[in-house]
Amino acid sequence: MAWRPAPVARALSGAAALAVAMGIGRFAYTALLPGLQRGLAIDDAAGGALASANLAGYLLGAIWARRAAGGRSRAALLRAGLAASVLASGAVVGASSLAAWGLLRVAAGVASGLVFVLVSAAVLDELPPGSDGLAGLLYAGVGGGIALSGAVAAATRAVGWRVPWAILAALAALLALPGLAMSPSRAARPAPAPAPAPAAPGGQVSISRLSVAYFLEGLGYIVSGTFAVAAVQRTPGLEPLAPWVWVAAGLAAVPSAIAWGAIARRIGAVECLAAALALQAAGMALPAFSAGAWSALAGALLFGGTFMGITTVTIALGRRLSPRAPGRAIGTLTVVFGVGQAIGPALAGLLARETGSPRPAVLCASAAVALGALLLWRGRSATAARPALFPAGRPDPSDP
Question: Which H/E stretch holds residue 73?
Fold first, then answer.
């Protein structure tokens, strides 16, 4: 199916908005944490606490957006979220206390939750059937924003921690312009009945087992998503490579949602998730067993290439496992994942402070993700033919 200009423009506007709210507003902190720790004398425990504050705010924002998604205020709320994300990124330049940083990270988290959910609805609800590529283009914005934040961090290593935040805030303001002109989808309209979809291959798991695995993913992946750059920065000889690790993770994340959706349709969602979790766990642990540049970059590629795909496939599988109450299933998965990622950085920061390095915390997080993979693999069971994972031909909105 050919891409028409209007849907492509809408997907690109959404991708730019996700680059602002997620890639910069949420994940730039990872690339810039080493400089922030040097400039403000913030230890690992405080760094983890700030990350947890941001992620708690994200959970609140996502819940708020889901409640408002069908209301008349959703367009104004989307614009407010984008504006707040830009302002929060810029305001940290003048923040010199831990309390001020905490408030701004919560605000940035709320903004990212609002923007992610509302932009997903604004774009995906308007795409024509069979628009897998356009949905992938939308979510590529997250990885693009991550790569951009890493590149800015690499280019400003010698000029203090305030300069990169100021640059990223200016770039976020430019990227937010297309999103500010976007409105969430119009009132729901009757959708044409999809053609019968082929049965999905693979095994099946219970929604409770999926929820536990997704909680472990939230708990584990965000530890690397917070301390990955800091860990490389403290490896002798790899200091200049540290921000480029985050660039690699972002570039790997660009195609990941659409790629893992395709894999799930081919081998089965449960098998796909178990494989993705295992690869992510391996990527998280790899730098702890080798101090070479290759292990840092390989770990970043495995991490970036899986976390968006895991979320996309998990949400879609949750809908399929609870056909009578898909909203409740998505809500449960969103909450357990949000709780996991909100507490993960704080616990990891405390462990890193006690051990003097973030590597033990990252290894523990890797073990949590690997346990999630094992739970899914051991809990799968063969079932009769059932609907395909993405019967409409495109991924469902996700909540990373």
Answer: none
**Where in the chain are the domains?**
5-184+199-379
Domain 5-184+199-379 fold is Growth Hormone; Chain: A; (1.20.1250)
The 3-state DSSP class for residue 189 equals coil
CB 349 within 8 Å of CB 45:
yes
CA 13 – CA 377 distance, rounded (Å): 38
Kindly state the average pLDDT of the residues 193-202.
46
Bigger pLDDT: 73 vs 88? 88
Rounded distance between C-alpha atoms, residue 57 and residue 30, angstroms: 16
Q: Does 397 score more than 80 pLDDT? A: no
SS3 for 185? coil
The count of residues in the chain is: 400
CA nearest neighbour of 228 among 218, 212, 206, 243: 243
Vertex 45 angle, CA 43 and 48, to 5°: 110
Residue 143 makes CB contacts below 8 A (sequence gap 6+) with: 23, 249, 250, 251, 252, 253, 254, 255, 256, 304, 308
- CB-side neighbour CA atoms (13 Å) of 288: 19
Tokens 């999926």 found at: 210
The residues near 171 (Cβ < 8 Å, ≥ 6 apart) are: 24, 148, 152
DSSP, collapsed to helix, strand or coil, labels residue 367 as helix
Over residues 153-195, the pLDDT tens digits come to: 999 988 888 999 999 999 999 999 988 887 655 544 433 333 3
Amino acid (one-letter) located at 239: E
Q: What angle do CA 277, 279, 283 make, to 5 degrees?
A: 115
